[in-house]
Design brief:
alpha/beta; Rossmann fold; 2 domains; 7-stranded parallel beta sheet; 5-stranded parallel beta sheet; 12 helices
């Protein structure tokens, strides 16, 4: 098969080349680094259906001529791209193919495969790091030094930053998919008790966590609440004023999932009142005004700019998942991570 691989600034062709190297013996691979220097304004209906993309679909369409498989991370895949007559498979090396017009792909009978869970290990690491930082009051200690105070060697200087160990405390996981399960594995190593709330899963396994049917019950019993739920229209602002009020006084809130799950104004109020002892978020709502995010006004808050999956291992893991799907496709075996299964029926 002829495979066109399109790199971008997040997943460059060097990473794709490494992760797809084993395919080169049996397939013809061509590489294109998408040009992100210009501006592209979506005009067609298909172009307006995609977002979080990099580059111009015209560049992809021109390079795609004669290829059977298209591999991308963030390059735009619109009806213009999907109209290539030889194209039979689209591979998107991310969990959600928001840069791919999957409806147009389905219409053409072209399956789209993705890489769900590729970042689960790195996001789980970050959730544990967040817990340690909050429990040990690292944000406040860092600000103390950033304000010009000297770091000395006296034991007594640490008296103003007494925190907590993780051992013996309770972690409440909201969502128990790829990431949530890995957070539980790590938290058990810290000696934590683990509660789980996930209405979409069977509570029969595993038996080393306690399943909780009621979200308010989990919130009221947890010292740390970590969100790992998939964002849907139904759970928008799942964590609102009522949810934060239901949390245990002096507990901590973590979100490494999606920003739509949290009412940030309600979170700010819970922090300002002292009801919550701290919060850490990797995802926040985009701010219209320039300057620091409003949540950073609170000294017990950690914010990161959506870096949960930003590790070299995550990128390579995703590309290797794509290589496995291409192997299956070439062999005529069932694809695993297909987002438009209706395309397989055409």
């Amino acid at each position: 098969m002829r495979i066109l691989v399109v790199g971008d600034s997040y997943v460059p062709i060097e990473v794709f080349s490494e992760g797809l190297a084993r395919l080169s013996g049996s397939h013809e691979l061509a590489f294109l680094q998408i040009d992100q220097s210009g501006s592209f304004e979506p005009a067609s209906e298909s172009e307006q259906r995609i977002h979080e993309f990099a580059g111009d679909p015209g560049q992809v369409a021109r390079a795609l001529n004669g290829h059977d498989v298209l591999v991308v991370h963030g390059a735009p895949v619109t009806d213009r791209v999907l109209s290539a007559p030889e194209l039979r498979l689209v591979c998107c090396a991310r969990g959600g193919p928001v840069n791919v017009d999957t409806a147009a792909a389905t219409e053409r009978g072209i399956p789209v495969v993705t890489t769900p869970g590729k970042n689960a290990e790195s996001v789980a690491d970050q959730a544990i790091a967040f817990m340690v930082m909050l429990a040990r009051r690292f944000p406040e200690a860092q600000r103390f030094l950033s304000d010009g105070n000297r770091a000395g060697g006296s034991t007594f200087e640490g008296a103003q930053f007494f925190g907590h160990d993780l051992v013996g405390h309770t972690l409440g996981l909201v969502g128990f998919g790829n990431v949530g399960r890995r957070v539980a594995l790590r938290a058990r190593a810290f000696g934590m008790r683990i509660l789980v709330h996930d209405p979409y899963l069977d509570a029969a396994e595993p038996d080393d966590v306690e399943w909780v049917d009621s979200l308010p019950d989990l919130l009221g019993r947890s010292d740390f609440v970590s969100v790992h739920a998939r964002a849907t229209a139904e759970n928008s602002r799942l964590f609102d004023a009522a949810a934060f009020a239901a949390m245990k006084p002096g507990s901590y809130f973590l979100n490494t999932a999606r920003e739509t799950l949290v009412d940030e104004r309600a979170l700010a109020d819970a922090l300002a009142s002292g009801h919550l002892a701290g919060a850490a978020l990797d995802v926040v709502e985009p701010q219209a005004a320039a300057g620091p995010h409003p949540l950073l006004r609170h000294p017990n808050v950690v914010l990161t700019p959506h870096i949960g999956g930003a590790t070299h291992e995550t990128l390579l893991r995703g590309v290797e998942m794509i290589a496995a799907e291409i192997d299956r496709f070439a062999a005529g075996d069932p694809l695993v991570n297909v987002v438009d299964r209706a395309a397989l029926l055409q």
